[in-house]
Amino acid sequence: MAKITASVYSSHVPAIGAAIDLGKTAEPYWVPLFKGYELSKQWMREHQPDVIFLVYNDHATAFSLEMIPTFAIGTAAEFTPADEGWGPRPVPKVIGHPELAAHIAQSVIQDDFDLTIVNKMDVDHGLTVPLNLMCGSPDAWPCRVIPFAVNVVQYPVPSGRRCFMLGQAIRRAIESYDEPLRVQIWGTGGMSHQLQGPRAGLINRAWDNAFLDRLIADPEGLSKTPHVEYVREAGSEGIELVMWLIARGAMADVAGGPRPRVVHRFYHVPASNTAVGHLILENS
Amino acid sequence: MPLDKPYLDLPGTTIFDAEQSRKGYHLNQFCMSLMKADNRARFKADERAYLDEWPMTEEQKQAVLARDLNWCIRLGGNIYFLAKIGATDGKSFQQMAGSMTGMTEAEYRDMMIKGGRSIEGNRHIGEDGDAQAHRQPQGAAGKNASA
């Protein structure tokens, strides 16, 4: 049977992608950030999954205001990196896993979560930047990826509670798949940031670190945090952090298993407008 | 019964909810069109003519021409859509975000390097943080513009 081996959490700031694409990673501004992911890349090489179930949000790229799915699962064979207005990022195509994705869609919908099934979709920096941070810049991504897009652009976004429960349903779906695949689930976005208005540039280090503490130790309690606390304390775009609860909900301890091992924890300010947070949790 | 909107007391922040989205539909869809290179070229060649192809309000068109992102947001724009205008202009997200504060690019960048804007005084309207209405515009760029 397929197994969830680990969960990974990371910000997905577009400027990180630009720094990689323009060869600026050795500049003093960026050095501390990329240093924080060195251990992660090493860990990734040693714990190569077969599939990454990658939870991210689309930033007005594949989804305009014509259609706004709350939860969208990518079931295509491949996904092309999008032109977000600066030209497409020079990164490899993302190869999907249509069989597992279709299995998850069927299982999760029968488990009361109404997913939108997407058979054609370009993927933006929300998905490709975390892949770069964890895998570097290879000619081909090292494994298959199932994109899972969450609406966090138009309010109301799904609640933390709903995301946490969805993660549990995704775990049940993955672990009922017959093939013995090693699957990682990633939650991306955040941490504190605000990109608009006179309050742009907001960073809340104390709140972010309390979020990381509770994500590790008390995800159930953390999932009850109301939306307005995210936007008040972590900025209007800090609401992306609800996506981390999907990945956390899929970990074994939530279903009564052993607590995960904290492989790595990293926090850095700033990347452009944003506080960068990163965690790796391993199921034992 | 009106919907509960507990986020209306955030200083310097517009939450892009269903009501804002409805107001800004054509503005945001115009922005979306700039993801195609051909459309970017046509927009750059004659901004006014390109905007006139869209059923936006005159005020929305003026806000785009002025590149006043706070104004665009008041009229229903969302930053992830408006970012396509910035991309067309060759601007980074940091330049766009900074432009909404009244700070110069250098002032905003320095604020971020020093750890970003503090949350203190910026949680609720009526406190005394730097994002509150009575403390706008911030920084030298805004002061020069309003002088």
Concise overview:
With 284 residues, chain A is an alpha/beta fold.
Description:
Chain A is an alpha/beta fold and 284 residues long. Chain A has one domain (3-279): LigB-like (Protocatechuate 4,5-dioxygenase, Chain B, 3-Layer(aba) Sandwich), CATH 3.40.830. Chain A is built from 10 helices and 10 strands. The model of chain A has no long low-confidence stretch (mean pLDDT 97). Chain B folds into 2 domains: 18-89, Dioxygenase LigAB, LigA subunit (Protocatechuate 4,5-dioxygenase, Chain A, Orthogonal Bundle); 101-146, no CATH class. Helices cover 52% and strands 0% of the residues of chain B. Chain B is built from 10 helices and no strands. The N and C termini of chain B lie far apart (44 Å). Classes of the chains: A alpha/beta (284), B mainly alpha (147). At the A-B interface, helix 1 and helix 9 of A face helix 2, helix 6, helix 7, helix 8 and helix 9 of B.
Reported by name, the CATH topology of chain A is Protocatechuate 4,5-dioxygenase, Chain B
Order of helices and strands of chain A: EHHHEEEEHEHEHEHHHHEE
CATH architecture of the largest domain in chain B, please?
Orthogonal Bundle
Global structural class of chain B = mainly alpha
Query: How many E-type strands of chain A?
Result: 10
Name the helicity range of chain B.
Answer: 40-55%
Give the integer mean of the pLDDT values of chain A: 97
Main sheet of chain B, how many strands, which sense, barrel? none
Find the biggest chain interface: A-B, 48 and 60 residues
Q: What shape does the CA trace of chain A take?
A: globular
Low-confidence stretches of chain A: none
Radius of gyration of chain B, in Å, reads 16 Å
Write down the overall geometry of chain B: globular
Helical stretch tally of chain B: 10
CATH topology of the largest domain in chain B: Protocatechuate 4,5-dioxygenase, Chain A
Per CATH, the superfamily of the largest domain in chain B is Dioxygenase LigAB, LigA subunit
Mean pLDDT of chain B: 93
